[in-house]
Amino acid sequence: VGRVPGGLLAGDTATFHRVETPMAMITVFPARRIHTMDPSLPEATAIAVRDGRIVEVGSIESLQPWLGRHEHMVDNRFYDAVLLPGLIDPHMHPGLIALMLACEWITPEAW
């Protein structure tokens, strides 16, 4: 018989407790228009965010059943704004683009 760490074969028992960590509050940002880039829901008027991650997109009305179960706050700073997804191009910086556009580009495909 092999040894089991913690003495489990000798009759020791361990009690495990589930630790509930409180979830961060959800912040809902209403906006005049949100371009989602999702063909099934191209535009929305509210976005819910928790810990820097989008958790739901729709309208204030469509979010209500979901928000009713979670602690949340409404932040109206973008109420009259149009929101777009963040687009990141990790290979080009504005200053670099300005320098490179003056160069001749030789690429395998038309650019």
From TrEMBL:
GO MF entries: hydrolase activity, acting on carbon-nitrogen (but not peptide) bonds
InterPro entries registered for this protein in UniProt: Metal-dep_hydrolase_composite (IPR011059)
Matching PANTHER family: IMIDAZOLONEPROPIONASE, PROTEIN LONG AFTER FAR-RED 3
Name of the featured protein: Amidohydrolase 3 domain-containing protein
